[in-house]
Amino acid sequence: MNQAGLFTAYRIQEKRLENAQTCSLLLDGSLPDALPGQFVMAWLPGIDERPFSLSDNDPIRITVADVGSFSHALNQLQPGDHLWLRCPLGKGFMPRGHSHLLLGGGYGAAPLKFLAKSLCAQGDQVGVCLGARSCADLLFVEEFESLDCQVWLATEDGSAGKQGMLTALLPEAQNALKPETIYACGPIGMLLATASWARTAGLPAQLSFESVMRCGVGLCGSCELPEETCQQFGLTPDFLVCHDGPVGEISTNHSK
Length: 256
Ligand SMILES: Cc1cc2nc3c(=O)[nH]c(=O)nc-3n(C[C@H](O)[C@H](O)[C@H](O)COP(=O)(O)OP(=O)(O)OC[C@H]3O[C@@H](n4cnc5c(N)ncnc54)[C@H](O)[C@@H]3O)c2cc1C
Ligand code: FES
What we know:
Elements: E1 8-19, E2 22-27, E3 39-44, E4 48-57, E5 60-65, H1 69-76, E6 82-89, E7 99-105, H2 109-121, E8 125-132, H3 141-146, E9 150-155, E10 162-163, H4 170-177, E11 181-185, H5 188-201, E12 205-208, H6 227-233, E13 247-250
Parallel strand pairs: 7-8, 7-11, 8-9, 9-10, 11-12
Antiparallel strand pairs: 1-2, 1-6, 2-5, 3-4, 3-6, 4-5, 12-13
Bound molecules: flavin-adenine dinucleotide (FAD) and FE2/S2 (inorganic) cluster.
Flavin-adenine dinucleotide binds near residues 52, 63, 70 and 211.
């Protein structure tokens, strides 16, 4: 049993290479009450602590892109090594309806894989749009397909699916799926384009935001979104990503 304010030591049971830059670490524990969209604070003593989305809860799984010193250290861990977590933290996705469209840019696919698994388990219809720089950078394509999700792909270099940005897939996915809710995780530009689409289509959208985190539990203020970002998305002012998010529901009647 993990208490959100305290670290629990886990052992890495399995390491999966997802692509050239990204691995998943599967741990020797589960979080039965964790919601898709919630995150963990992962700690390596003497190195640092960073937030990561849960890409699964049973067993606990995080999916880490090797982009800097901490994520590189995580990518070096091997089965049998220890990792310390505070978890689960934050507010996750709150699914609405029975037809769902998920958009994941880069490692933004991680929380959506957990979400798709839980939606498919209850018999809902799930479509997934995945985007990355190239075919080799896409994440979880086979896992989404094996869940029976309808999958659309976009790559910037055209090496898989449609050439261009992920959000260019929205019209086709919308027509095919007729979703009742949109869920997205990825770079801020992608979230903005998704929010704009959702407003035009009059669909509720739940977006997962990122920012620099220290405490992870609403105490230090370091993860507060800039005022302009809160306005752009119609979020409450002073939105703390760790406490009010990371998932925020945007108002679809916002006229910006
Ligand atoms: C709620 C939340 C969930 C997250 N979930 C995940 C997840 O599931 N998987 C995951 O890999 N990361 C995730 N992150 C990001 C993660 O916490 C770290 O920010 C990231 O691993 C970089 O840390 P670092 O110390 O390795 O790099 P840093 O030393 O902080 O940065 C090194 C270099 O990498 C660049 N960089 C930093 N962050 C990113 C980034 N996010 N994308 C591209 N370049 C970057 C910096 O500009 C810098 O040039 C999440 C963040 C938040 C807030
Ligand atoms: S990380 Fe401290 S308030 Fe969010």
